[in-house]
Amino acid sequence: GENVEQHPSTLSVQEGDSAVIKCTYSDSASNYFPWYKQELGKRPQLIIDIRSNVGEKKDQRIAVTLNKTAKHFSLHITETQPEDSAVYFCAARGYQKVTFGTGTKLQVIP
Amino acid sequence: SAVISQKPSRDICQRGTSLTIQCQVDSQVTMMFWYRQQPGQSLTLIATANQGSEATYESGFVIDKFPISRPNLTFSTLTVSNMSPEDSSIYLCSVPIYRGSGANVLTFGAGSRLTVL
To answer: What CA–CA distance (Å, rounded) separates A64 from A66?
Structure first.
C-alpha cells in the first residue's frame, strides 16, 4: 500500500518568515495530493491540493509543488502569521483511498 | 458543501464495553471512510463503509473489533467493541465531496473523542 513520509515533525519559525514542509510517497499510482491543517481540538481542514498533472499550485500565501519523478511534494507558507500555528498533514490518494503523512507541528513565534 | 454530523462528540467509557459512533451526511455519498487519530498522531484509515455490502478493512483492523454499518447513502456507524485503554482516540468519519475543480475532497466530521478507563 501507499506510504507517505513527512518532515519535519516540528517546525518553529518567526512571524513573517517562510515555512516549508516536505513529503514523499511510494505509490506511483497516486494522483492527488491534498494538504490539511488541523488546529488544536478541531477536525482536519483542506488548505490546498494538487493533482498529478500539475507541478505547482499557489493560493495566496500557500503553495504546493509536486515532483512526480522523485515522488516528492512540498508545502510552502510565506509571510507566516501566528494563526498559521497548527499541525499540517500531507496526504496522497491512489485508488479512492487517502493515506496521510505523520504530520508537522508548526509554531509561528510572534 | 456537505454537512457531516457525528455523534457522540466525546465519551468516557469503561474497559470491556462497546460504543457506537454515528455519522450522518446531508447528501448522498457513495463512499464513507472511518479514520482513527490516536493522541498526537496522524490519521489512520480503519475501513471504507460501502452501502449494500460489507465494509473494507485496512490492515490491522478487523470487523469483530470495529463493526461498521452502512444502511443507506447518508448514514454509517462505527462500533468500537470490547474497549481497552489503547482504544482511546479520536474517531473521524469522512466523505469525499466533489468540488467544481474536478477533485473529490476528503471532508471530515468533527470527530468522536473516546476515553477508555
So the answer is: 7
* Burial label, A2 (beta-carbon count in 10 A; 0-12, 13-18, 19+): middle
B105/A102 Cβ within 8 A: no
The answer to whether B49 touches B104, Cβ cutoff 8 Å, is no
pLDDT at A96: 78
The one-letter amino acid code at B13 reads C
Q: Is the dihedral of CA A37, A38, A42, A44 positive or negative?
A: positive
Distance from CA of B108 to the nearest CA of A (A): 6
Contact status of A104 with chain B (Cβ, < 8 Å): no
Q: Is the pLDDT of residue B1 over 90?
A: no
CB B80 within 8 A of CB B90: no
Query: What is the arithmetic mean of pLDDT over B80-91?
Result: 97
pLDDT at B52: 82
Reported confidence tier of residue A52, pLDDT bands at 50, 70, 90: confident
Question: How far is the C-alpha of B59 from the C-alpha of B41, rounded, in Å?
Answer: 18
The residue among B43, B57, B104 with the most chain A CBs within 10 A of its CB, best to mutate, is: B43
Of the CA atoms within 13 Å of residue A29, those in its CB half-sphere come to 8
Name the one residue in this structure whose C-alpha cell is 449494500: B52
Q: In this structure, are residues B49 and B68 in contact, taking their beta carbons and an 8 Å threshold?
A: yes
